Amino acid sequence: MLLTPQQIEKAAQDIVAFWNRSVLPDADKAKILEMVQDYYASKDEYLVDQYLAGLTQRTIDRNAPQTDFENQND
Fold it and tell me: Measured between alpha carbons, how far is 6 from 13 in angstroms, rounded to an integer?
């Protein structure tokens, strides 16, 4: 499948904006992003798959901290 730069940009923007645009509870948003990250990580056919998997993981890490240490804003 041929991807254009605009399609890659749209996918990246959608991943990053999903958390703020979705009306779902945070736990559901995190689960959906985990599924997206798993999809791209397991697909791993092209460099773009690695990029989108990493971008999705960073979005999860930023919005859904896994420990109380990450929740502290000191």
Answer: 10
Residues counted in the chain: 74
Q: What is the pTM of this model?
A: 0.83
20-44 tens-digit pLDDT = 999 999 999 999 999 999 999 999 8
3-state secondary structure the chain: CCCCHHHHHHHHHHHHHHHHHCCCCHHHHHHHHHHHHHHHHHHCCCHHHHHHHHHHHHHHHHHCCCCHHHHCCC
| Short-list 31, 6, 4, 2, CA closest to 18 | 31
Return the structure tokens found at 12.
Answer: 């990246």
Q: Please say whether the beta carbons of 56 and 63 come within 8 A.
A: no
How many other β-carbons are positioned within 10 Å of the β-carbon of residue 13?
Answer: 10
